[in-house]
Amino acid sequence: MAGFRSLARQVRDPRCDLALRRYSLRKCLERFAPYGHRATWDHLCARAGFDPEDRSVDPARLVAALDELEEARAVWLGYEVEFAERRRKEKHGGLRRPGSVDDWHRLTWGGFGVAWCDDPGVHPREPLAEVLRRLIAALEREPGTACPVCRGERLRWRYGLDHEPSAGPVCANCGILVPRPVLTTEALADARRSKVLVSA
User: What is the residue-wise DSSP string for 91-146?
Assistant: First the structure.
């Protein structure tokens, strides 16, 4: 199975058939998709200026989408290195029990669904790398009351999400499943009071 970097090389290779280049970009999302596969694809298409169903995309637009994805992946991999180093030091210091951020991080290892968007058409509009930087900054400070990505304060508890966890606070503005560790107990309670059931 091809890894992210070899797939990225195929996207950039002008000798490859255009269909293979598009397919390779889609396959990259099996390795790294911060919003989930479908929402990340929709985001990249919108930002690079091509339709998600377009089979004859301008190669320059495919590469632009890949550039954005690679930048975001570099941000996330940097965070994972720092995270692993912190956990190593904590274990060396005798702290064996992981905290809530660690529990959340375990579910997103590799970057899949870091900022999960259950509705593929509703996701942040900013560049992926910027979204991840905001999310990482929120994970490294005290919990707050708003979405760490868009600062929206309308958080709704949703059940039946196509993700693990399958329920949680979703930002009504940008659509991400807000990681619980970045929210105060009060913000989580407020989100639960405004719960929304998601139909299957």
Answer: HHTT--S--HHHHHHHHTTTSTTTT-BSSTT----S-HHHHHHHHHHHHTS--BSS
- Alpha carbon distance, N-terminus to C-terminus of the chain: 32
Residue 101's pLDDT band, with cuts at 50, 70 and 90, is low
pTM of the model: 0.89
Going by C-alpha positions, the residue among 159, 67, 81, 85 that lies closest to residue 118 is 159
Query: What is the amino acid identity at position 21?
Result: R
Q: pLDDT for 163-177, tens place per residue?
A: 888 999 999 999 999
Per DSSP, helices labelled H in the chain are: 4-12, 18-28, 37-48, 59-92, 100-107, 128-139, 185-193
> What are 145's two structure tokens?
């009351």
Residue appearing with tokens 């000798």: 15
